[in-house]
Amino acid sequence: MKLIADAGSTKIEWILTNDGTEIKRCTTAGYNPYYYEKDLLRRAIKDNLMDSIGQVEAQEVYYYGSGCSTEGNNEKVRSVIVEFFPKATIEVGHDLLGAARGLCGRNPGIACIMGTGSNSCYYDGVDVVANVESVGWLFGDKASGAHIGKSFIGAFLTKECPKALRDIFTETTSLDFDKVLSKIYSEGNPHKFFAQASYFVGDHIEHPFMEQIVRASFREFFLENVCKYEKHREVPVNCAGSVALVFENLMRSEAEKLGLTIGSIIKAPTDNLVKFHG
Length: 278
Hints:
The chain has 278 residues and is of the alpha/beta class. It is 47% helix and 21% strand. It has a domain at 2-99 and 271-277: Nucleotidyltransferase, domain 5 (2-Layer Sandwich). The chain contains twelve helices and ten strands. β6 (109-114) and β7 form a beta hairpin. The longest helix has 17 residues, at 208-224.
């Protein structure tokens, strides 16, 4: 038995496999070692994952996670997983490696994650060999739900957003100026609030103002991340994540302007990782 985890800050998708065939799939709360204590991951495994898959003896565990970019963070994750699977071989890697393996298989390419956060890497068919480092939602994460939502919320607060859109937002969410400020500064995890706001952008993407927000976010991502890889015009740019899927047409349009070729677009790399790990 093998257990594969695609772990984001919002949710973790776990897949139990046997001989390359999916046996069970389970979704638990997300985890990022930069933001959360280990006990959050421990509870997700104990209260949700183990109840779903039962007391199985997984021989191999592959965990691809947000924030798993340092040995210290990887050890935090590994130390929790080993509590539940003490006999397993455990590999903890960055979610970029999982995305690259799921998107590119064993072929060279650029792999991008466009979900709550965003990131990218150049993959040589074996490993991630170049990465424009992510600086997180506060300063980066262009082409992510958090960035698109933050761009809209910023325009809402400064009244740069058309009044009609501001009124619709307040009516549909019951959030006025003061309540939005409270969401950002008084409640935890503002990046999740921004990511949720991106759904409103998507629901009103036909409005030119919303379209411009999304186009600008993709263009900044491509310029600040993808175009910095030496062979960015020679290999396909493959994308995983809900933002890439929802705004696919706008993403392709902005990529074409920069001479980039969009390859595969998938919601999550987990299905392809089942094949990759066999």
